[in-house]
Amino acid sequence: MVIKNKKINKLIKDPDLFFKDFFIKRPQIKDFLEEKTSHIKSHKYHYAMYLKYKRFNFQTKAEMALMKAISLNPLSEYYFLLGNRFIQKKQWWQAVESYKKAIKLSDTDNPKWYKEYALALMQMNNYVEASKAWETALEKSKDANDWFMYGWSLEKEGQEDESNEAYSKAIEYDKDKNAKLLGMGIFYEKKGYWIEASQAYAKTVQLNPLDAIVRYRYALSLDRCYKWAEAEEEYMTAISLQPETIDWYYRLGFVRERQEKYEEAAQAYMHAAHNRKTHTPYWYYRLGTVLEKAGYYKESNEAFLMMEKIELPQEENDDIPFKDRDVFFHKKANTLVKSKQWWQAVEAYKEAIKLSDTDNPKWYKEYALALMQMNNYVEASKAWETALEKSKDANDWFMYGWSLEKEGQEDESNEAYSKAIEYDKDKNAKLLGIGIFYEKKGYWIEASQAYAKTVQLNPLDAIVRYRYALSLDRCYKRAEAEEEYMTAISLQPETIDWYYRLGFVRERQEKYEEAAQAYMHAAHNRKTHTPYWYYRLGAVLKKAGYYKESNEAFLMMEKIELPQEENDETETFSEEPVEETVKEYYSYRNYIEKHGYLTLANYFLDENTTKKDIFEMIFKDKVEIDEQSTKEFLEFLLDNTTTKLDIWKRLTEVTKEENE
């Protein structure tokens, strides 16, 4: 590729051109331009490149540009920025060294630099040096949080008197934590150090035993330390002093539930849910849960209904107008289905159908599905008969056939399955048979059994063979799946995705060389570049002992081409530096896979996955985390500088904590 020198000169004068024009719009000449500009001996130019890389979130390249600027002119500001970069990566000792150099080279005592230096030192448990750094950082500071951190470093160092003086300053300068009332406990709480917070609050309670807020914060800290009985006592004291604060009743219910005091928990939850100004479905859910555990099934049912504000009349069966009773019970049943209260839902559907003056097919269908959840296939098949009198819905006929099959009526079941295949419009069931219905429901054992019959009817159809192979794959029958994938590929070799599945089952059988052959064909021939496929190729090559080829595969995750002649004689893993981002992908992907998060890792490596997708995926997961952690994680996700890889790192830390 030839580019005129005038354009390169213009590039040097205006770094924006590099990003706005070449880097973003024409990535095919990116590497050429970087090579032409790497020799420039101007530290200002490389600093400008650092700023641009950082702006476009190319963090690794930004770091390299900054280090290049430092090599040309080791300014204190550059070292400070490099320290910040190491902090982001949690490379604490490198951050400490960078900050130390920045401070040494600086001609002024910059409080912000000393603060960052002190925080990095504390991460390494070097409290002696940290307290010295804090002294300089806080000469003219009135920041309460910084004085707290200074006091903490002194406390860790064993200087109790000096630590208390610093803590007094923190309380004096506080503006938003109500520290003058709550004491040092509130600082520990905001940092998430609940054990220390509870110890500090215990002292504050002795000073203010009749203050409701102090009692509540102390109770919350005990709650977070899993000291349920002590927390319950403190919550009750706080409520007795300030009974109008509704949220406290919920926390009281929570700690009672954890002690299996279900009736007492229900009393607290009920007061909280009924009296909160904002309708809170989850509080009604917790109320319904403890009532059910306590054996109050009718009241539990009513609580679950209140999750959607479905009001129960005073006299459930007498005061409702006859024409409205069936609708009421139908709504009630639908709500119970959402909370998986199957037998209650069945009873509610039965009552709705009994009171209705028409045979509503939709209601019978919902009734049948609820009965199947309880394995009552006899009643379910009867309900399906009514639901399907005039229906041509393929999925419904399949479910009817399934209930008949479970009931043992084979002939009637086959007739229903035939109807399902006849009415199908989108599953290609006329070719694939009833197996495709099982597959879509996720019932892989039944799917494989059905596909086995279809294969006998269509032994030379590639699609049928592939679906059968996939069902065996999902049933962990790797050897049989491999044989079927190979048959499918021999019949239709142009379908690239099938080679990936072939590689997958070979890898699971530890046939690493054969897996590599399949993965290589899949990755190289797919029209869309797929980083994860190259990752799998690299993984099996490494296990097979082909280290050079493995390295090349990992580099291909980001399309980093190796020169033809590089490491031709090498028999071990290449010592050439791999791009850091690629190494991080490999490291975190490997960790997540080991701990069973394979689907999550695949999702991250998909180039079509956006931060918004990740955000929605995470918060669809029903994980109960405390309010402060939720707020911090939201801020982390919404930060424009947060990348997909950053989120990956954070989730990896979470999985480490879970497994520890």
Write structural notes for this entry.
It is a single chain. This protein has helices spanning 5-13, 15-25, 30-37, 43-55, 59-72, 76-88, 92-105, 111-123, 127-137, 144-157, 160-173, 179-182, 185-191, 194-207, 212-224, 228-241, 247-258, 262-275, 281-293, 297-305, 322-338, 342-355, 361-373, 377-387, 394-407, 410-423, 429-432, 435-441, 444-457, 462-474, 478-491, 496-508, 512-525, 531-544, 547-555, 580-594, 598-605, 611-620, 627-638, 644-659. The chain is an all-alpha fold. The longest helix has 17 residues, at 322-338.
Key words describing this protein structure:
disordered N terminus, 40 helices
List the helices and strands and how they pair.
Blueprint: H1 5-13, H2 15-25, H3 30-37, H4 43-55, H5 59-72, H6 76-88, H7 92-105, H8 111-123, H9 127-137, H10 144-157, H11 160-173, H12 179-182, H13 185-191, H14 194-207, H15 212-224, H16 228-241, H17 247-258, H18 262-275, H19 281-293, H20 297-305, H21 322-338, H22 342-355, H23 361-373, H24 377-387, H25 394-407, H26 410-423, H27 429-432, H28 435-441, H29 444-457, H30 462-474, H31 478-491, H32 496-508, H33 512-525, H34 531-544, H35 547-555, H36 580-594, H37 598-605, H38 611-620, H39 627-638, H40 644-659
Helix pairs in contact: 1-2, 4-5, 5-6, 6-7, 7-8, 8-9, 9-10, 10-11, 13-14, 14-15, 15-16, 16-17, 17-18, 18-19, 19-20, 21-22, 22-23, 23-24, 24-25, 25-26, 28-29, 29-30, 30-31, 31-32, 32-33, 33-34, 34-35, 36-37, 36-40
